[in-house]
Hints:
about 280 residues; alpha+beta; Putative GNAT superfamily acetyltransferase; seven-stranded mixed beta sheet; transferase; Aminopeptidase; five-stranded mixed beta sheet; globular
Amino acid sequence: MTVTLEQGRLVATARDDAARLAEAAGADIRLLSSPDEMVDASALFARVWRVDVDRSHVNPGLLVALAHSDNYVAGAFRGGRLIGASVGFFHPPAESALHSHITGVDAAVAGRGVGRALKFHQRAWALEHGARRMTWTFDPLVARNAYFNVQTLAARGIRYLSDFYGVMSDGVNAGQESDRMLIEWTLDDEPASGEVDTGAPPVLVVADDRPAALPLPADAAAVRVDIPRDIEGLRTRDPDAARLWRLALRGALSPLMAGGWRLVGVSREGSYHLERPL
């Protein structure tokens, strides 16, 4: 692969960004290679998703195979202990796109920048390997993940996927359908975005922890779709309400996105902002 001067500068900047964020998070991030490291990474994913280690979403043998075939398997360490891990693989067209399959961070260090540092390490690695796009999925009901993906990274929500994985039995996803938002991150864009204007008319709002749908204004150029700020807490204290939210968000976001409405932002409070297609 021939690397242009501009591409070389982009990769160098991405490496610097990744190193700065890793230092800020107090983490040493590197690729994993040994079988023992793969066992540790698989066990970390099991802890994060609250399942027995033999039911981890990614087993050690698969991690070995992915790393051996030059895909992305990396870990974040602090004091020699694995505190986070991330896995990605190339998808067609292989020379330009990486799918980030799973990223997990130990609960003891959650919210301290380790996940963000892993994502930027993955970005730098992908650019070094010729990729220009990265895709992944996330639960669109988790407001903090929506804000991070769309606002912090400036990734684009491109498709609403209903019950994407089917029935899941782990401690995070059990008892609900596995809807996901497909995200695409253009890696050579500036990875930052401003705050979103939430003044658009809402089509879904929070009313005493329950969803309340509103009609789509016929002449609205933009609309707002609200979600709970803490769906995980709601799932614990009121599982029935949480299940209602899954169906309500699907009913609001899925037809809008299928109809060409563009997801252009997410507020810190938990609101999706969409603009009508031109």
